[in-house]
Amino acid sequence: MNAPITRKEQQRLEGASKPRATGRVFSLSGAEANQSEDLIQGMCFINGTPLIVLYDSGATHSFISHACMSKLKLPISSLSFELIVEKPTSGSVSISDVCLKCPLSIDGRNFMVDLICLPLSQLDVILGMDWLSSNHVLLNCADKSIIFGEPIEKVSKDYLTTNQVTTSLQEDA
């Protein structure tokens, strides 16, 4: 008869069997973001709480600090994969915790966003390319602002053949 598996052992086994994916984040601290002229910071709200957000086109995913996640008591889920995030100064970190469908508000616009938990300092949220592209957000580096674009409507691609164009022109002539 086998001995029961402890929770810690189960987590180790589950972690070992998860597939891996890679991610990237440009800045990990609010101090770094404040000192850089290339980064755009702002304010967002989660559950009515004001938070410092960094709009990071160099980040593949969107993140929330562990401290912020704990303070807001957000429910945590596990990713179906292990995410290896490359940090600019200290190598990489392996993470698998995510806050799914967080209610995020920016400039009166409401979004649901999946935020991966990451150790951040002096920074609450990083919105990366996953969020920027899916919400058609443009970064205005000159003004250090963001612009919400509208999704482009699909254009009907009903093309005419050469014969149809010729016939139509002859009928109108």
UniProtKB/TrEMBL annotation:
Annotated transmembrane regions: none
Pfam families named in the record: RVP_2 (PF08284)
InterPro entries tied to this protein: Peptidase_aspartic_dom_sf, RTL1-rel
Region (Disordered): 1-20
Lineage: superkingdom: Eukaryota
Biased composition (Basic and acidic residues): 1-17
Name of this protein: Transposon Ty3-I Gag-Pol polyprotein
Organism of this sequence: Cajanus cajan
Lineage: Eukaryota, Viridiplantae, Streptophyta, Embryophyta, Tracheophyta
